[in-house]
Amino acid sequence: MGKKLFGKPVITQEAMRRRIKTLGLKIAEDYKNKDLLMVGILKGAFAFFSDLVRAVPIPLEVDFLVVSRQRDKRRRDGGTVKIISDIVSEIKGRDVLIVEDIVDSGYTVTFLREEILKRKPGSLKFCTLLNKPERRKIQANIDYICFEIPNQYVVGYGLDYKNRYRNLPYIASLDNITAE
Ligand code: IMP
Ligand code: MG
């Protein structure tokens, strides 16, 4: 590994800490006296999810869903989303909040919405660390967004490029990470 592995931050640890604190309090306010089940979408959301749930000071449960998006350029819908490992918790009647790392084309959240709605939750909302609205291919309503970013590929704080860089403690643009 080269010396320049740790690229320039696009979003710093401090900026994320502050934004997550505010968002956590907003979620706590919106879900007080509800039956909150927060679902982290793996692998990408693992770091954000663990910081976010600790910033929500009300009773809640956590669960996880592992998905993988197969990109297929021949298909107009940009590929398919597959559930690799499903939620264990009962969904019916519960107030489900899905936590994503980044919303890009919008296909993943659209798939998740359809999939979770089949299980009849009491309510269903979406939260994402990052949003890239310029890249949207399909409309996706996101209830809580931490940061909007321009059309650039980012890594770190859970997000990967070819399964690497998830351990960077901040969000960096892939262009800034030059060494291998
Ligand atoms: P969507 O279905 O196109 O919205 O894709 C969302 C998924 O693509 C995310 O959960 C990420 O795994 C991945 N993704 C999209 N953009 C980026 C990026 O800039 N960095 C890392 N992963 C990304
Ligand atoms: Mg992902």
List the helices and strands and how they pair.
Elements (H helix, E strand, L loop, with lengths): L8 E3 L1 H18 L5 E7 L3 H8 L7 E10 L9 E6 L9 E9 L3 H11 L5 E9 L12 E5 L5 E2 L15 E3 L7
Parallel strand pairs: 2-3, 2-5, 5-6, 6-7
Antiparallel strand pairs: 1-9, 3-4, 8-9
Bound molecules: inosinic acid and magnesium ion (MG).
Textual characterization of the structure:
- The protein has 180 residues and is an alpha/beta fold.
- The protein has one domain: Rossmann fold (3-Layer(aba) Sandwich), CATH 3.40.50.
- It has three helices and nine strands, in the order βαβαβββαββββ.
- The strands form two sheets. The protein has a six-stranded mixed sheet with strand order 4-3-2-5-6-7, with helices on both faces. The chain has a three-stranded antiparallel sheet with strand order 1-9-8, with helices on one face.
- Helix 3 links the parallel strand 5 and strand 6.
- It is globular.
- The model has no long low-confidence stretch (mean pLDDT 92).
- The site of magnesium ion (MG) has 2 residues, from loops.
Brief description of this entry?
The chain is α/β, with parallel strands linked by helices and 180 residues long. The protein has a single domain (9-174), classed as Rossmann fold (3-Layer(aba) Sandwich), CATH 3.40.50.
